[in-house]
Amino acid sequence: MSNRGRPRSASQPKPTGAQVVYEALRRAIISVRLTPGAPLEELQLCKTYRVSRTPVREALIRLASEDLVELEPNRGAKVAALQFVDVVDHYEAMDIFQPLVCHFAAVRRTPHDLAAIKNCISEFRQALAQKSAEAIIVANFNLHGAIAVACHNRSLEKAYRRMLTDKLRIAQQGARASPDAENELARRFQRTFRISEQLAAAIASSDAGAAERVASELNAYIRTQVVDILSSSLGTAAKVSRGRLKEIHASRRSLDDRREGAAKSRR
Questions:
Q1: CA atoms within 13 A on the CB side of 17
Q2: What is the mean pLDDT of the chain?
Q3: What pLDDT sits at residue 116?
Q4: Apex CA 223: angle with CA 259 and CA 219, to 5°?
Q5: Considering 79, 97, 117, which residue would you say is the last residue of a domain?
Q6: What is the pLDDT of residue 265?
Q7: CATH code where residue 28 lies
Q8: 92 and 155 share one domain
Q9: Cβ–Cβ contacts within 10 Å for residue 200, how many?
Q10: Low-confidence ranges of the chain (pLDDT < 70)
Q11: Residues 142 and 257 placed together within one structural domain of the fold
């Protein structure tokens, strides 16, 4: 039986310096506390985390393998840029990946997986109550990371995590542009949380069909929110043309129409 998804044991060894740096930078990048394109200077990171250059370099290489950091020869490292122009391709891919990952999670989840998912739901609920933007982003990422682990397919899990990271960074970047960022993010994620609760329940019930349907609903809702963000706060900053935004809207309507048609044909 796989050990993935099991709660952390108190007997587990203390994390290495590289792990500490990796986890701290990963959290900061996903929550956009470290903004896209920000330089990551090795000496400063060594001072911040009180480690030598070797753990810092190991952490940066690992983050680069996850497309969170860009390593440039003779120029050092920087936080990976956000590719807004790929948003249409991203959501088309998520329309396939998210229901598939959740289908396998419903079929293959173990008691340890369910415990991890339940814990993530609790953390998500607490983050929303506190209206902590960073905690909300990280809790949402961890929840869907736990669902990805529960699908027990490493290739799907790896691809899903990368796409989820892009989605959260885009949403967070836009929400932070709001004058009331914390409340704005909490407001947008309230429905995300309610749908995620339904998704967790479907997975716990081993209802693969329901898990697929709820996953599609979740992706459709988040896609709508991201398009709204791109249309307002990010449109100028990301230099997204009006034509491109129209394409994003058209793609969303096309995907929704196809999903509705497929649902009718199954009735």
A1: 14
A2: 82
A3: 98
A4: 55
A5: 79
A6: 62
A7: 1.10.10.10
A8: yes
A9: 23
A10: 1-12, 83-88, 170-181, 227, 229-267
A11: yes
Instruction: Indicate whether 156 and 42 sit together in one domain.
Output: no
The predicted structure's pLDDT at residue 256? 57
Residue 7 lies in a domain: no
User: CB-based burial of residue 157 (10 Å sphere; 0-12 exposed, 13-18 middle, 19+ buried)?
Assistant: buried
Q: Please count the CA atoms within 13 angstroms of the CA of 121 that sit on its side-chain side.
A: 17
Report pLDDT for 247. 58
Integer Cα distance of 248 and 255 in angstroms:
11
Let me know if residue 117 belongs to a domain: yes
* Number of separate domains in the chain: 2
3-state SS, the chain, equals CCCCCCCCCCCCCCCCHHHHHHHHHHHHHHCCCCCCCCEECHHHHHHHHCCCHHHHHHHHHHHHHCCCEEEECCCEEEECCCCHHHHHHHHHHHHHHHHHHHHHHHHHCCHHHHHHHHHHHHHHHHHHHHCCHHHHHHHHHHHHHHHHHHCCCHHHHHHHHHHHHHHHHHHHHHHHCCCCHHHHHHHHHHHHHHHHHHHHHHHHCCCHHHHHHHHHHHHHHHHHHHHHHHHCCCCCCCCCCHHHHHHHHHHHHHHHHHHHHHHHHHC
pLDDT of amino acid 204: 98
Tell me the residue range of the domain where 38 lies: 17-79
Say yes or no: 168 and 206 in one domain.
yes
- Residue 258: per-residue pLDDT: 59
Say whether pTM exceeds 0.85: no
